[in-house]
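User: Could you check the structure of this?
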Amino acid sequence: MSKQTSHPGSLLSRFLNAGVAGLIWLGIAGNAAAVTNDEKAQTAVHMLDYVSVDYPEFVQDGKVLNPEEYEEQLEFATQSAALLGELPATPQQPELLKQATQLRELIIAKKAGTEVSAAANNLRLAVIQAYKLTVTPKDTPDLNRGAQLFGETCAACHGATGHGDGPLAKGLEPEPSNFHDEERMRMRSIYGLYNTITLGVGGTPMQAYGSQLSETDRWSLAFYVSTLRATAEQHAQGESQWQQGKGKNEFSTLKDLVMHAPAEIEARGAELAVTQIYLTAHPEAIKSAAPSPLAVTRGKLDEALLAYEKGDRDNARQLAISAYLEGFELVENSLNNVDKALRAEVEREMMDLRAAIAKGVSPEALSGQIGTIKKLLDEADEKLGSGSLSETTAFISSLLILLREGLEAILVLAALSAFISKTGRRDALPFFHLGWIFALVLGGVTWYVASYLLTISGAGREMTEGVTALVASAMLLYVGYWLHSKSHAHAWQNFINTQVTAALDKRTWWAIAGLSFLAVYRELFEVILFYEALWAQTGSDGQSAVIAGIVAAAVLLAILTWAILKYSVRLPLGKFFAATAGLLALLAVIFAGNGIAALQEAGVLTADRINFITVPLLGIFPTIQTLAAQGIALGLVIAGMLATRIQEKH
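Assistant: Sure, the predicted structure tokens are below.
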């Protein structure tokens, strides 16, 4: 972390003397040092970070203020391009090499520092994205641990307070960095400091700590160093602003915090820069304040527009899909309870946005559409109470989520249970119970994974829902047809007399087990993720209302189950079979529509919108694909009924 000023020697000779960067160049020269592609990419990023920070200091108004430093910046750009050429081929690599060439040309032309710095930063971010480099701490950095590490490993050179005046600093060339140097530290991102700690600076006393300190320790140290220049007044002001909600959209993740230098943040507003100072000292505040779903949507929309402007339509489309799935969809239920028309309008606009990307409209037109959506999102924010739900809204949302999602599962389970009870086939009970019990267990695993291990993406959620819905639809058609074929007394009697132990019997029980599982898991999977979002939206004050809503919905579902079982078993055998078969057929048609709609939302299937009604409860959505799927399911139901009648006549 030594300051890179007034020191002789070329970049290459200095990098050969120390650190991982030296190993890379030795490897390129043919030595035996084994260097991973990740290390090469990290070093390229490290050099680009130095270009973005140092170049504006040594080249101003087209004049070189320090020839040696200028040559070093040019060599950084040249060698980072060489490293990028050594990395594995990716679809982004040609563009990365093009940007690297352009950066070198800008330096040769002695362009303005702001232009070169921006080009280096853009390339740095592109490399990180293309090669999926680690840019975010896995755990919340511990600044107390950072302070301890600073005293043990850095204070001897950089001084106890970070002013570059440690007992070993005298005579060092270059002199150790002064972390209170406002101008220089404004240009250093936390990630840049993390890279310096990890890779060191070749040819200087700043050694690499990649093998000596754990990744967590290096992040903690980088965060601590970044706080040294800040004043108590800035910390207090930043804390006040954060508590007022300022910066929560801009710093929704630790990645947002570590990737941008203070100067970049200042360009977006002085208040944001102060908020960044506070968050650097208290990164746990970001972890405890997860971004609101609508903030996620806004961020993804911005990324989609940026990708589209660069000509990357495929990525823009995926980001537009994520904007809906990762954000807006999680508040649909809550918004639906306070303004159904607004919810529907946002859905339509976001579907139209994906269609516009596919059609290749002009970037200006796409920007206008995104602007329209953002205005609607602002309105939704107001309706939802600016990110926090009232207790009444939280209760109603919680109640309706479980009631609506659970009703379909209850209808299937109640029909199957009543069928087993009606026929006295107790040998089917183990299959029936195995299905829903396994679904509950897997639901618990899903909750644990979603909460503690990884984030289940919106696309993954919709894929799971879509596939299970379509499989359930097929199985409902099968079991429904089987029940309808036994709706006549003599058909049932014949089945009892001749097929008690037949293979068809066993296939039917396994189908019942599969339906029992799918009916519960499909709904439970979505319920878990929706409640996770609702829990975060309500905050600690409204979470009791969420629990109350769950309890109320569970009671209502229990009453509905009791009523269905009580009155269904009283039906005559033929009518019971016919009614149950009809119910399962209806659910099969609903599941077919919902399954296709979910796959459309995941971006797997296209969605050709038409002027038609929308009834999500019945799986009806105004697209050609969903209506066609329901038409096919309905056609199969009718065909099954006709086939049964023909069999009865014979």
